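EI: anyone free to look at a 469-residue chain?
SC: sure, send it
EI:
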Amino acid sequence: MSRKQELLKRHRRNKRVALLLALVILVLVGVVVAWWLPLVLAILGWVAHEAWFSDHLFYSPADDYQYRFAESNLVPCVRLEGDRLCLDQPLAQDPSQTLVLAVRVKATLLGRFFDPAIELTGDGVSDSQAFERGVNGLRYLNLTGLAAQVSAGQLRLRGRRCVIQGTPQLWSFQHADARRQRVMVIAPHADDAELAAFGLYSQADESWIVTLTAGEIEAEHYQQMGMNRADAARIKGRLRAWDSITVPRWAGVPESRCVQLGYFCLQLPAMQAAPDQPIASREADLSDTRLFRQFNSMTLPGDADGAPTWNNLIADLRALLLHARPDVVVMPHATIDPHPDHICSQAAVFEALQGLEWQPQTVLGYANHLHDNDRWPMGNAYSGVALPPVFDASVTLVPYSIELDVQQQRDKAMALGMMHDLQPSPPLKRRVRRWLQKVLAGRRWPAEGENEFFRKAVRRHELFWRREL
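SC: here you go
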């Protein structure tokens, strides 16, 4: 069982215990006070839960994030004078520089019911980076793109429903600019590349998009159109395969540099466990990947037999890496992102690179899902991306972030809107919860789409984690 599954299991167990205790209390209230009072209290309790306590947060908001950055990246003599961030020496004005500010944040009483945030203002700057309700610990702001304002002492930090305590620490990370290199984005599913790296791949000198699976399962939306389970899965897979080839054209990436490998969703772990054994789709009644490869413009080793095996996946990746020769490979970060297909995608790329005559200079990892917090990035669309929760100080993480202007963020939102898997309306319960949170908790969702990823992914920053090979 993965850590994310263990956290969910514990959360559901605690929730069942809390509901049982609440039921006992309501019964006692009904017996002692009035028969109708438990019904009223139950409705009010459900409304309060949906509005304020339904976030999947598997840690205490009072826990410190535990990043351990190299001392060589620490900027000396950083302080707050009032609400103004001040340095003794100006920062280097490097467009590929990533800036991270550690601050201790404590929520006010209102910050336990409404999202606390730190507002960043200055010359041409208006940003807000949000945190967990009830936050009381060390957090990390993303100041990438604000080096000029920081150097000039023009950046102001104001807590909204929270206060900043102590002395901040600033880290500066210098990177080669991936936007001036040949980039290959590895996407476990159609839309992963857009969610994590649309801004990066749309600006890179040359981009390749490689999607590993068709993402054909969980096709209930298509079953509602009258299709049986297998037909619904097949058409969903074909649509997502089409999306993976065509949507990057919106960013200027030609179809010849977009490849769909057509392996089956959530079957990568089983393929990895038995490398030479074909692993069929869970729902599409298929054991041949070629149905989902029909839009590719190049031939790959796995096309010979269409067998959904780990060995074919590795051979496909090796052929693509040798053909494209990317300087930068962008893929899921297996330590942070718990999705099983994302973990296996990273493992497959590293296995494909072993002994290969071409090696990229840099690997950038991304996380479209987290173990500990299903709402990250917190806050609203078009705002900045603070660093995610990390509680293992032994993990070496080097942040690499880029800034997207408003037009680039809008283009990203439109790209997500083209993805068929992000188009269906959310379930009724989620829509009701969202309405309650809007009315009672002041949360806002973007107009571009109802899927939660329109809020999570359309942001001022894209955030990656760099490692050298």
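EI: The chain has a mean pLDDT of 94.
SC: 👍
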